[in-house]
Each structure stands twice: as C-alpha cells, then as structure tokens.
Amino acid sequence: IKKMNFSGIDQLTAESGLLNFILADLGVSSMQIDNPDRGFSFKEDGPLDLRLNPKSGKSAATLLKTISVDELEAIFQENADEPHASPIAHAIVTFRSKGGIISTTFKLKEVIEKALSFLPEADRKEVVKKSCQRCFQALRIAVNDEFGVLEKFLEKIPFALAPGGRVALLTFHSGEDRRVKKSFQHFLREGIYSEITAEPIRPSAEECH
Questions:
Q1: Is the distance from CB of 166 to CB of 21 less than 8 angstroms?
Q2: Which residues of 114-143 are buried (b: 16+ CB within 10 A; e: fewer)?
Q3: What would the pLDDT profile of 9-43 be if each residue is shown by its tens digit?
Q4: Please, are residues 203 and 171 in contact by the beta-carbon 8 Å criterion?
C-alpha cells in the first residue's frame, strides 16, 4: 500500500515492475463527502475546503477570493457542464466585490440560490439543487487539479502495463469519461492497446440499488 497520487504510477512501477492489471476508481469517498469539516457537500454547513488532501494546495474558499469571473465561469462549464455558469460566476464575483466572503458551504449555496432567483418558482428548488451539486463538483475538480492528474495518469498507463495487461477505470461524470475515452482511442490507433471496449460498461439496476 502506497499513499500517493496515481499520476505518479511510473514511480511505483520503477520499484515494483510492470503491472498485469490496473483498476482506478475516480470517485470521491462517501466518508469524505459526509464529513462537513471537508466542505464537499452543501447538505451541512462547514468550511468551504474541497481539498482531497487538506494539507496541500489552496482551498475552494481561497480560490474564490481572487478568481476572475471568466475563469470561474470556465471552471463551472468545463468541469461540470453547468448550464447557469455565467449568472452564478457573476453573482459570486459581485458578492465578493461588495466585501462578501464565501468561506462556508452554506454561504456558497446561498449565493447560488440568489443567482438563480430569476427562474420560475415551480422549477427553482430542483434546479438550484442540481446547480449546487455541479458547482461544488467543478470547484473540487479545480482545487485538486483532478483533470490534470487524470491526464498524466492516462499518459503513463501504457508504460506501466506488462504485455497482455489490462486496465479498467471507474468514471462518474462526463468530464472524466471524455478524457478516458479519448486516451483509450488514441492508444488503440497508435497500436499500443490491442483492444478497448466499444462502449462504457454501465452498472446494472441491481448494482445501482
């Protein structure tokens, strides 16, 4: 067992040799999400942290203190396909420009709710909930550079696998899925992978339950 980021898989294989099988679970642990001190969820109030390693890097609260509206809008769009990225990003930066500080999960949720107050009341509650989920996800991905780390990992997989080795990745949203598909298809065309699954293997209804 090694406590390390999987983007450093080449360091691991330098010690252990090539691998016959790689399984990477790209999900976040429910134990982290359920802990309000980590700031992953807006169900309970807590510090807006979102770092997978609280001892490294900048928290989401720190990021929101200086980020531009264009950068924030891009994060919401690229990391979570948020349809209301523009009004939410503008609301956050406007709140900040008036001296507001977004340091807790509830405060971010409150700003998102106000940004979407233009929506019809009948639809608003459900749309706000989904936008909160996507915005928290997008900030978590940005704070932890999850896509950058994933791309480094994908680039190194062919050089970590032994001949005849296999790799399987568990993805949980479109941003991860796109990058995995693109990498697998690229290495298949290059003749490095001998075959890939034609379509993602999805969980059955029983597994989802």
A1: yes
A2: ebbeebeeeeeeeebeebbebbbbbbbbbb
A3: 999 999 999 999 999 999 888 888 888 889 888 99
A4: no
